[in-house]
Amino acid sequence: MSASPPVPALDGVTAYPDEFVDRYRAAGYWRDETLGQLLRSWAARSGDSTAVVAGPVGAPQRLSYAELDRRVDTTAAGLRALGIAAADRVVVHLPNTLEFVVVLFALLRCAAVPVLALPAHRRAEIAHFVALSEAVAYVVPDHHEGFDYRPLAAEVAAAAPTLRHVLVAGDPGPHTALADLPAGPPGPLPDVDPGAVALLLISGGTTGKPKLIPRTHRDYAYNARASAELCRLSADDVYLACLPVAHNFPLACPGLLGALGVGATVVLAPTPSPDVGFGLVEQERVTVTALVPPMARMWVDAADWDTRDRSSLRLLQVGGAKLDAQLARRVGPVLGCGLQQVYGMAEGLLNYTRLDDPDDLVVGTQGRPLCPDDEVRVVDGTGAPVPPGAVGELWTRGPYTMRGYYRAATYNRTAFTADGFYRTGDLVRQLPTGHLVVEGRVKDVINRGGENVSAATLEEHLLAHRALAQVAVLGLPDETLGEAVCAVVTLSPDGASAPKLKELRSFLAGRGLARFMCPDRLVVRDTLPVTGVGKIDKRELAALLTAAETEGHQ
Ligand code: OOB
User: Fold this and answer.
1) Domain AMP-dependent synthetase/ligase, which positions (predicted)?
2) What does the DSSP assignment read for 211-248?
């Protein structure tokens, strides 16, 4: 094998200080491994086993570890022949397909840096990711869920001077087909520094434009490996990715990477519906999957009448947003599997309930940190630690938590402390066991005429009402109060009639809630808008309500 030239480092990335590099390596969290090499060793170990299953229920495509490794090599050679070089950024905008897995690893093998967009992102987000990362290529499907990505790609490309290639999985239209990449020599694996940035994830944050999160080979490899161990994944497991696999949760918590790391099989669901999910669980004997709470609700509701065989399922991970305790309690009995709550963030820190935690912790908390060297501080508005058990903002630092957003020097000065703690913006309290209970977001407090109303607290109380399925509480501009408290709800499927605002208020008073905490307005909707990964999207909801109000006044 000929030696490859050294890979240039990315600009705009905050490195871990040397003392932490030494500490995390000495503790064995960080190994000298890169994600592109890891696939090679997994293929050497599990060659003939099925690595990935994708495609429609009934007619899935399957790739063994050895086949995946070969396809990745061919695609990497084609990408190199196109001129995609080490450290080049490439926006990958693919749904849960074999191509996603192949392109991801092929880019890693070229030492190029994938920017993992979610299928639901559209022009504004993609144009932002392309411009910020100065991407040289953009990879899309032809269609997904009724949307044609090729005109979007053409629009983005027309406005992006750095973008040299649009690559399409499927029918390329005016662009280049992934299947028609030029053939190239199977080049050596580039000599990548395990501490280099492997990929850029998209932040789930709700303020401003989404940010890009650099994750290094060794921190992300640890993230996936330690998560797999915690979930006791083995080669006998079948992991179903229902959530978009470009998201950190199904990608590496333990997700696709954690499952491949132990020789398990990964099944990619084309859409997240319980109908497709149950079909795949039965057909592929799925053992583990991960959902966000609104989807978990749909699964639990559908399981009441759907008789397909789910007996293989041993663990349902739920995370991404607060899982209410009542729904948490239904998961085990209805789906016949264990529940794990996951409180994580693309920035790094992962909290998991453990498989042998007592029920009250599994149902009532969002887990505790994955790694013994995850440092968590719960602080007040001045940055001082709150008393044990009190609510405060979570700050964190550790072996897989990034030290700065990509190319965001100014923002990083407020998002991080001088000593490298990430200010999560999440309000939590920590139990003596170390488990965290998420109590909302720092900014999700409504100022109602000078009184502070915690949206999360009110949501939790409202969810106890049997007529309500989903609840989002928002502050809306109000002439007298400054902000009025608005509860937007969907109704339970059991046919209960919509409660009136007055009735909800007396229900809340009955639960001991102060008058000022009670909603001023109630909006009943059929559905609530969701983000790219399926969490309730309060920003979009506020925009919808404001638009409806403006229309109403016209
Ligand atoms: C996951 O990652 P992101 O980056 O999409 O969103 C992170 C934010 C957290 O800061 C928190 O505000 C919220 O989402 N969140 C939760 C939660 N899990 C995430 N809030 C309450 N309860 C939970 N269980 O969402 C993510 C990444 C990896 C694994 C799981 C989720």
Assistant:
1) 40-406
2) -EEEEEHHHHHHHHHHHHHHTT--TT-EEEE-S-TTSH
Residue among 253, 343, 436 to mutate when testing ligand 1 (max atoms within 8 A of CB)? 343
Q: How many angstroms is it from 535 CA to the middle of ligand 1? A: 9
CATH code of the domain containing 543: 3.30.300.30
Q: Answer for the pair 212, 405: CB distance below 8 angstroms, yes or no.
A: yes
- The tens digit of pLDDT for each residue in 216-241 reads 999 999 999 999 999 999 999 999 99
Distances (CA, A) of 157 to 76, 100, 153, 406, 505: 22, 20, 6, 22, 52
Tell me the pTM: 0.95
Q: Is residue 511 part of a domain?
A: yes
Record the tokens describing residue 8, joined without a space: 């240039």
Contact 128, 115 (CB under 8 A): no
Q: Which helix (H) or strand (E) holds 92?
A: strand 89-92
Q: In total, how many domains does the chain have? A: 2
pLDDT tens per residue across span 473-514: 999 999 999 999 999 999 998 767 899 999 999 999 999 999
| Site residues for ligand 1, CB cut-off 6 Å | 203-204, 248-249, 253, 319-322, 341-346, 350, 366, 424, 426, 438, 441, 533
- 474: CA distance to ligand 1 center in Å? 19
Atom 24 of ligand 1 has which residue's CA nearest to it?
343
